[in-house]
Each structure stands twice: as C-alpha cells, then as structure tokens.
Design goal:
Layout lengths: L2 H17 L3 H12 L2 H24 L1 H7 L1 H27 L21 H13 L2 H10 L10 H28 L2 H4 L2 H24 L3
Helix pairs in contact: 1-8, 2-3, 2-8, 2-10, 3-6, 3-7, 3-8, 4-7, 5-10
C-alpha cells in the first residue's frame, strides 16, 4: 500500500465517521447556537486536538496498551462517562433554571464564566475526546489497516489524524456557518433553553452509553 493510497482510503472512512451524528457534532452545534462562531471554532479545534492525541497514541501503541489492560480502560471509561454526565446535566439544569435569567453555559465545569473564553471552549472539546477511550479503540482497530510498513507508524498515524482533522474542520465549519445564519432566532431565550435541553440530554445519553458499555 502506497502512502497516497493509504491516505485516500482512510479519508473515505474518516469522512463517513465525521458526518455521523455524535457527541462532537452536538458540542459544536450547542456552542455555536449558545455563544459565538469564535467559541464554536475553538471547541472544534479542541475536539480535533483530542482526535490527534488518540491517533498518535494508537500509532505508537499506547492505546493498544490501554485496551489490553481492563482496569486502565475501565478507569478512563468511567472518568469520561462522569465528565460527560456532569456536562450534560449542567446543560439541562441551565435549560430549566438559566443563571440570572441570562445566557447560560455548561462551561462552568472548566471554571469558565459567561461568556466562555476560546481557551475554555478548546479545553472542553479536547477533554471530551481525550477522556473517551472508545476513540482510542476505534483508532487501534482502524489505523493498522492504513499504515504502510516501510514508514514510521507514529508519523503516518499523525498524517492520517491530520486528514481526519481537516475533514472535521470542514464539517464543523459548515455547521457553524449554518447556525450563524440563524443567529437572530437562536438568541431568543426560549430557543437557547431548548438548545441546552436537547444538547444536554444527548450528552447525558452519550455518557450513559459509554459508562454502561462492556468494552
């Protein structure tokens, strides 16, 4: 398998994974609707940084080691599930009782005040992916099929992760720009509470699914 063939084949698989609705899309949608394009792009960059970290870890064998240890995998899985549950419950709480009747934010988990900073949004996106061992497991299962033996696994892992990152940024950019066109509607308090309620419920669902999974 040539490098170009590996990149092209991986791009197709990663592209399908990118556009599949999930936790990452939910976070970017919620941030874009509740805050600003800048905050949403920061969240997207954090998500992609988490993906890159897992991909490189998988390429050098760290994720494989984690998956081989049931205890280590369980610890990371439970920590990730707890983080997601806290994040989702906070969103739901703010949908029911907005702080001071103003724009609420679930970013307080990262010590952020309203409005959230780009750094806090990046951190939230990064931690959400970094604390999800399922992403590491995905890369452990997927990457070996696209690593030419004559090239460094770590370098190729990083290259493939960057391909995934580019696709992710393009997808998130479309979402953010589409949401931005509906800014006037989304700034209404009732709509923003609905966004928090729906996003929070989705994030809680992802957290429960991660925590209750057997592998």
């Amino acid at each position: 398998m040539t490098v170009m063939h590996a990149i092209t084949s991986f791009a197709v698989v990663a592209g399908l994974m990118t556009i599949t609705p999930g936790l990452d899309t939910t976070l970017v949608l919620r941030t874009a609707a509740r805050h600003s394009r800048r905050a949403a792009f920061a969240t997207a960059l954090g998500i992609n940084a988490g993906v890159l970290a897992w991909a490189v870890a998988a390429a050098v064998g760290v994720s494989a080691l984690l998956n081989a240890s049931q205890l280590a995998f369980t610890v990371v899985k439970v920590a990730g599930a707890v983080y997601m549950l806290k994040l989702g419950i906070t969103m739901i709480h703010h949908a029911i009782r907005p702080p001071h009747g103003d724009v609420a934010t679930a970013d307080s988990l990262a010590g952020v005040t309203v409005p959230p900073s780009a750094t806090s949004c990046f951190r939230q996106g990064f931690l959400t992916n970094l604390m999800n061992p399922k992403i590491g497991a995905f890369y452990v299962a997927l990457l070996p099929q696209f690593l030419p033996p004559e090239h460094s696994a770590a370098v190729m892992g990083a290259v493939l992760a960057l391909v995934h990152n580019v696709e992710g940024l393009l997808w998130f950019s479309l979402i953010i720009l589409a949401v931005d066109r509906m800014r006037d509607l989304l700034q209404r308090p009732r709509v923003q509470r609905s966004v928090d309620a729906v996003a929070g419920s989705a994030v809680v669902g992802f957290g429960l699914r991660l925590g209750l999974s057997r592998s």
